[in-house]
Structure formats: C-alpha cells, structure tokens
Design brief:
232 residues; alpha+beta; Protein Transport Mog1p, Chain A; seven-stranded antiparallel beta sheet; 6 helices; 11 strands
Length: 232
C-alpha cells in the first residue's frame, strides 16, 4: 500500500500553522468533564474532552459528535503525536530560529482528535485516511475564509508538486458553515487527493482532512461527515 504516514503528517500539521494565530490526540480515552470556560484552556484539555466508543467520536467541550465509518481503525495517541512532531520537523528545517519558535508555538496549540483507516495499519487496502484536529487560536480577528485561504497557501507551498483542484467553497454540516478546498499531491512517488474542511468553534479552528489514494472511500467519508452533529 501507500505509505500514508509521511504524506499525511505534513498536511495535518500545516493546517495548524496558521498565520492568523502564530504563536498527542487521544480518541480512545474516556471523556473527562469539560472546563466551564475557554480561559486558560489548553489544546490538550480540549482533546481530552473527547471519547470514542467504537462507533461515535464525541467531544464534550466542542459539543459535537460524528459517526465514523463502520469497522474503521483509529490510530493511537502515540501515532497522532508523532504526526505532529514529524510535521513540525518538516516545516522547521529551513526556517530561521524565530520561524522555528513560531512553529513550536503553533504545535503546542494543535491536537489531532483522531485519524482513522479502513483497515489496521499496514494493510494494502488502506486507500483513504480520515483525520480531524483542532487549533486553539490566540486571535480570532480573521474570518474562517481568511484562515482557510492562508492555510491553503501553506499547503500548496509545502509541496511544489501539489496543485489546487478546487478553490475555497462552503460546506454546510449540521447547519454550520465550513470553508473547504481540495488539492492533488505528488510526493515520493505517490499520487493522492486531499480535502480540507474547517470552521470555528468557541475560539477553536476545528478541521477535517480527507486523504484519498483512489475513489473507493469517497462516498463513505462523505456519508460520515453528514452524521456530524453540533449540540444546539
């Protein structure tokens, strides 16, 4: 199969490296009581307010739930943390000391909520990855569209062989508007497509990254996104 790990790592992190907010996941742990306010709330605490029961991912702080595709495999916290660290190293390698410090700040405000595969890691049938994450924003002065536009530029700049398939457009999930864009990537002999979907929730940039090596699971993930529910 495709060695999705290296190809996805950069994408997960680069979305968090926001110009609007310069500055581990858990997935299977039991949910904790969420803090009452956003004051002094860390990205880790937001992640720890989530849980997965083998079917539905819930996040108590973000007040949302989503049903993952049946029998898909959630990657471990260690893999998610390693993804952020590898992405940090990739982004930092050609930056100045100040740039590296900004990357470090960004990573501290970012968590992967979950990454899911159709089959256990290593299976040749894993032709898609479903990822979800958050960035705690230090500033909320920009719009969702601005945030997505800046990150689109970062994603495309991160890989000279990445091309824009579909520019920013709106996606509405459970009445909430997300900003979305799609890219095609050529990396280390692999070809894949990715869809980025982002919105704001309580001062948090909340996003999905969908990676496809072929069209097998496009409908599956589209149907999963339709199950996203926000507590009213």
């Amino acid at each position: 199969m495709r060695h999705f790990k290296q190809s996805l790592v950069l994408v997960l992190f680069v979305f968090s490296f926001s110009l609007t907010a310069k500055a581990q996941s858990h997935g299977t742990e039991k949910a904790k009581n969420p803090p009452a306010t956003t004051e002094n709330l860390s990205a880790q605490e937001i992640a720890e307010s989530g849980s997965y029961d083998g079917k539905v991912y819930r996040n108590e702080f973000l007040k949302l739930s989503i049903t993952l595709p049946e029998k898909w495999t959630l990657l471990s916290d260690d893999v998610n943390k390693a993804a952020l660290e590898a992405g940090k190293d990739e982004i930092s390698k050609n930056k100045s000391q100040k740039g590296k410090e900004e990357v470090e700040k960004s990573i501290s405000n970012t968590r992967v909520l979950f990454q899911a595969l159709p089959f256990p890691p290593g299976s040749p049938d894993n032709t898609a990855v479903f990822a979800c994450g958050i960035e705690k924003l230090q500033s909320t002065n920009s719009t969702v569209q601005t945030y997505a536009e800046q990150n689109k530029k970062l994603v495309l700049a991160a890989n000279e062989k990445a091309t824009l398939k579909k520019d920013l457009y709106s996606t509405v999930l459970d009445g909430v508007t997300f900003s979305t864009f799609e890219i095609a990537v050529e990396k280390e002999g692999m070809s894949y497509n990715q869809t980025y979907i982002v919105t704001y929730r309580k001062g948090i940039a909340f996003f999905f990254v969908l990676t496809f090596f072929d069209n097998t699971y496009k409908e599956t993930l589209a149907n999963s996104l339709k199950t996203l529910t926000f507590e009213k």
